[in-house]
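Problem 12. The chain below contains 370 residues. Write out its predicted structure in token notation.
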Amino acid sequence: MISDRLAPRGFGHNTLHLKQRNNHQTQIDFVKIICPPYMGKQDSSQKEKKADDLPTVLLLRQPFVLTVYEKQFSEKFRFLKPWESSMPLHQFLSTHAGSVKAAFFTAGRPITADILQNLPELRFIMTTSAGLDHIDLNECKRRGIRVANAGSIFSEDVADTAVGLLIDVLRRVSAANRFVKAGLWQKKGDYSLGHKLGGKRVGIVGMGSIGLSVAKKLNPFGCIISYTSRNKKPHLSFPFYPYIKELAANCDIIIICCALTDQTRHMIDKNVMLALGKEGVIVNVARGAIVNEKELVECLLKGEIAGAGLDVFENEPNVPEELFSLDNVVMTPHHAVMTDESLNDLFQLVIGNLDAFFSNKPLTFEVVQA
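Solution.
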């Protein structure tokens, strides 16, 4: 016998049509579970209602971390995506102005006073980057908007990239790789000499968490470390130079790790490059506009510095074409932070901070606005 236990809870015998054969074997000839016609719609509406009940977070472009962890994010937050709407941005923002209390932004989209004026209820901005040059912090302070960034979670990865770019430039790893793959080893014989890392005088521009990590990684190679920063760090024994040109004149290599501000924009100009000298190398893992890119290209083409390792550029993703043919220039596409581990750390940080904001709890890496 087939009992009612075979039928879904809440349904009886009329859900199963049975036929008895002569051999007393029972066979299910046709099974039809009768569902109330409104149940599918009810489930859909319940899902929509649940999504509507989630805290609302504004995006202006899709962060990569959201693309990778979209399922986890969407279980906790409802994201407003203006690029999916046919409305102009200002109209989209005005339409949702009353519901947006939190926003999740990336470094690739400037957050200006004009944008913030369209969001009168906004109280929290979470950004994926450590740098804050894309956000109008003065306007945020005036409006009482709290800001949190990625803090130090990328520091080790960025420092690794800085060291990798430096070794690549000095030992010409990428250029030698192209030489071998082009079949030139057989045709032209031995490749030209590179330069030793040990004993090089390395000046670090910006001794924050990234700069300090770079110093710790290069010290065991036998590099001689010095630095410039907004202030001298009392706990560090490395020589401190208050002026960038003075640092460059006493170094073979400068590695840029500082934030982009009005004071640091184009800080690395032709005068600094000439002070660094013809054997000098520049590595930039901070922001492209800290270097006067036009003057950098000019110095490289004229041989006024020896090489460059660049992860960032002044007008990304546009890169000066003059650099493409230079074997003494190694470039990566603003990729220093991009590792599986750091992306997971960023996911944990963002989701934790959004939870904290909506629960009125302390934020991690909240920016103190002077």
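Discussion. The chain is about 35% helix and 15% strand. Students who got a different answer should revisit the alignment rule from Section 12.3.
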